[in-house]
Amino acid sequence: MVRPSASPASKAVALAFAQAVSRAVPASLSHLFIPRKGRLSLYDALCDCIPAAARSAEQTFGGYGVREVEFNKVLEHNGFTKIRDRCILPDEVEATDFSRSSSARYFFSNRRWRNPDDPHELQELRQAWLKLRQLAWRLGADVSLEALEQCCRERYGAWAEMTVNWSKAPRRVYRNKHKAGKKDGLEGKKVSGKEGAWVEEGSETRSVEAHDEDEIAFDGLSSVWPGVMSVKEEPFDLSIPGEAREEEEESLLEKEELPRVGWWETPEEVTGLGRTVCSVWSDGWGWA
User: Fold this and answer.
1) Fewer Cβ close by (within 10 Å): the C or N end of the chain?
2) Domain residue ranges of the chain, discontinuous segments joined by +
């Protein structure tokens, strides 16, 4: 049986809700993010505030609500940047359930919960609420401004308390597929047997295929490498147990960059999380 997709009205409500309760921050503050899963995620807040927009067992026909995967995809296609973090978390953060995966955690970067205690952000929340309420009426739901304020206030405070000393900047997700081949300078190396062998060229590792020795012309190279084989020019897919399964959790990530995040100072007037100065690598953190 084909799983029904969410109705356009539900997707519109979901997007308007996420834009209302979260606030974009400058790209320089990449250490600010919102979890995609768990009790402090945007989808969890949607289920609490507008149950009609989320998928439930009671929806058997007609307009269906959005599932968590659909919800996150809608946000990705509308300006919410997805990032991945596989670093070890502090114990107090690890104990929470905002990420259900122990191998990879995904967030929305350059976003934070809106703070209704700030007059300017409260005004922004009210304007977004007017649009959200009109869309929610199509689903037969009513959203009060008080409920929206309480939703933001609780999650903003909980997330701020949890990450007050958390200075890690997760690495970004790259979807560009890296193709290795003859143009990259892949040259033949000594291999043995008829099975594939791993060839390390510089800092990159590629897979090559060996052929039968009877079918290879040595051309004088046998004196140096008696077992020289020819190398297949076209690379084939790599399959690494364990690591490949982790990458298949969301998408194939075949190119990752570990940028150096230099010294930064968290602005108190922007985050409200206190002032912390750290020197951070993308796969860890250090205190100064």
Assistant:
1) N
2) 8-170, 182-247
